[in-house]
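Researcher: Let's continue the batch. This sequence belongs to hydroxymethylglutaryl-CoA lyase, and it's 231 residues. Same format as the previous ones, please.
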Amino acid sequence: MLFRIIQNCFTFTIRRSSNFVRIFEVGPRDGLQNEKIQVPTSIKIEFINRLSQTGLKYIEVTSFVSPKWIPQMSDHVEVLAGIDRIPGICYSALTPNVQGINKVVSLGKKGVDEVAIFSAASETFSKKNINCSIETSLQRFNDVVKIAHEKNLSVRGSISCTVGCPYEGKIKPSQVVPLVEKLLDMGCYEVALADTIGVGTPKSIYELVKEIQSNGIPSNKLAIHCHDTYG
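Model: Same format as before. Here are the C-alpha cells for hydroxymethylglutaryl-CoA lyase:
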C-alpha cells in the first residue's frame, strides 16, 4: 500500500527558468485519507520518517479536519508529535477551517511549518466535499490565512477538480483562473492545480496552465497535483 501511495500522490511546482522541479509529497495525507481500513498511527509515523530520508524537502503529513468526516486523519496530533523532524524539511498539514488552524497553532513547536487550504473549481464538488459553495469556502479561508500569517506560517493553496469533476464533467480553464487569483490575493504563496479524478492529459494540463499564465500569473506561483487513475 505504501508503495502505491508514494508512487501516485505528489505535487510538483512549475519552474520556467530552469529544469528544476520541486516535489511536494502529500502521500501521508492525500494518499491515506480515503483508505477504509484505519492505518495505525505508528505506521503513518514510520511512513513519514522514511519519506524524510529520501531527500524530499516538503511533506504534507496530515490534515486537521473533523474525525466525523475523515476518521483516517483523527490522529493528526499524535502523528505530528511522533515524527522525526529533520532540519531543512518543511512539514505541513491541511487546515481547511478556523478550528483546524487554531488547533495547529496551539501545538506550537509540535505543529507544522506551513499549512494548506483547498477550494474547488466545481460548485457541485465543493458542496458535496466541504458542504459549502465555492464563495463561502473562500470567505472561510480568508480567516485561516489571516491567523496563519499572524503566527508566521506560510499558506499553500490548492484547487480540486481543475480538469474534470465526477459530477459536472469537464472543467474549463476559465473556471479555474479566478480561483487562482483569489487564493494568491488572500496570501497563498502558490496554488496547486489538482487533477482530482485523474482525467488530465498533457494537452489539457498544458491548456490549463497556459490560460492561467495568459492572465498574468507567473509559473512559479503554480504547482500541479496529478493522479495516475487511468494509467
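Researcher: Any comment?
Model: The beta strands are 10-13, 22-25, 58-63, 90-94, 114-120, 154-160, 164-165, 169-170, 191-194, 222-226.
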